[in-house]
Amino acid sequence: MATATSSRERPAILGGTPAIDLDQRDAKQWPVIGAEEERAVLEVLRSGELSVNENVAALEADYRRWLGVRHAVAHCNGTAGILAALHAFGLEPGDEVIVPSATYWATVTPVLHVGGVPVFAEIEPQCLGLDPADVEARITERTKAIVVVHLFGMPSKMDELLDVARRHDLRVLEDASHAHGARYGGRPIGTLADAAVFSMQTNKLLPAGEGGVFVTDDDELAEKVVRLGHYERLLHLESPNRRFAATGFGLKLRISPLNAAVARTQLAHLDHRNARRNENIIHLSEKLEALGLQTFLAPKEPPGTQRVYFEYLIRYDEQRFGLPADDLVRALQAEGALVGRPRYPLLHQQPLFTEGHWARIARVQPTVQYDPRDLPRTTAGNNGSLLKLPSFPQAERALLDQYATAFEKVLTQAEAIPRAGS
Ligand SMILES: Cc1ncc(COP(=O)(O)O)c(C=O)c1O
């Protein structure tokens, strides 16, 4: 039984009773794996078809129905799907691809493996997606594509980004790895651009263990993706690509049917599990917004836009509260909150880029220099003020209310919270 802690009680970091005393293990348990997954995996194991199994085609059909797209091609992971998509875009050595810096590396690094040059652009503060104006400012005659990521499940500003792409004749790939089930302007994320890729790695909203799905409405892109990494399918084509059936284009990127089995059961539960996360996080976010924190609630524009929560990030303004973010985190942790810092170091500051290794991987003459001081707005937005909370996939309201109390307790007594080093 939880003991109600008032926001005026002594903060736990000063010896008071922690605001959060409910067990959090079940609340944050992810992925949810049960009898259905066990049955599905056993069925594949017993079939003996552990490499090429018809359940992969079934998963792809599920994806096509779910998103209303013409093609879905399952891959061994999302990184492979992104590589395949960029290959299908037909990039030539030295072609530039505009990308964000605040993302998981796989949004960007496959560009190198198709001989492309990543050009980092600023993100905008509202949705943490690529800033359309800055993207446009970075276009050169060598720019061929943009990779958009819907970070943490927040749809990027797609109308504006697609408008820039249309005016400059650029391909657009949606990295939808964080955004299974999100919508933008009434349409599913993953159906807005030339193609999209969904990672199904264990933490994702649609977890398979490992796996990734490339989707597109474009017949030619889909066939190029198959040609690159799925040689076993080429014999079944009517098109001239059939002649490559003995070799494909040299990679093997298919998903394991065991992972496909997990993915199929997870997809069947995606909507209601997303709904539960959303309800939980929105409930807590409304309380945190009332305390003066920014919680990235779903943008209202365009109508029909709905975010999902791969991860739950909030923005804390140290100036406003007069309490350094690190001290806030320590005080919240003392209250029992599982709060930490977001985990993506900015890519344009990484040695892969700043030390020039990227050009050897891409096998191009370095036409751009990566400067860690570039992207001041992205850097400022990533520095310190973002906090990460659990995404509460299975939490009960009582736990969320305890989190709200923990924040209120610490923020309303901010001047009393000990500062590191003092
Ligand atoms: C934004 C983003 N893009 C791409 C990937 C790559 O996916 P995977 O881990 O399935 O290769 C991930 C995931 O881990 C990701 O978070």
What report would you give on this structure?
The chain is an alpha/beta fold and 422 residues long. The protein is 37% helix and 12% strand. It contains 15 helices and eleven strands. The strands form three sheets. It has a seven-stranded mixed beta sheet, with helices on both faces. A two-stranded antiparallel ribbon has the order 6-7. Strand 2 (96-100), helix 5 (110-113) and strand 3 (117-121) form a beta-alpha-beta unit. The protein is globular. The two termini are 37 Å apart. The mean pLDDT is 95. Bound molecules: pyridoxal-5'-phosphate. Pyridoxal-5'-phosphate (PLP) is lined by residues 77-79, 103-104, 106-107, 149, 175, 177-178, 199, 201, 212.
Count of helical stretches: 15
Identify every distinct bound molecule in the structure, by name, code or SMILES. pyridoxal-5'-phosphate
Task: Give helix and strand order, one letter per element, not per position.
Answer: HHHEHEHEHEHEEEEEHHEHHHHHEH
Amino- and carboxy-terminal Cα gap? 37 Å
Question: Order of strands across the widest beta sheet?
Answer: 1-9-8-5-4-2-3
Mean pLDDT: 95
Proportion of residues in helical segments? 25-40%
Q: How much of the residues is beta strand, in percent?
A: 5-15%
Unreliable spans are none
C-alpha geometry: globular
Structural class: alpha/beta
Largest sheet data: 7 strands, mixed
Number of strands: 11
Tell me the Rg in angstroms: 23 Å
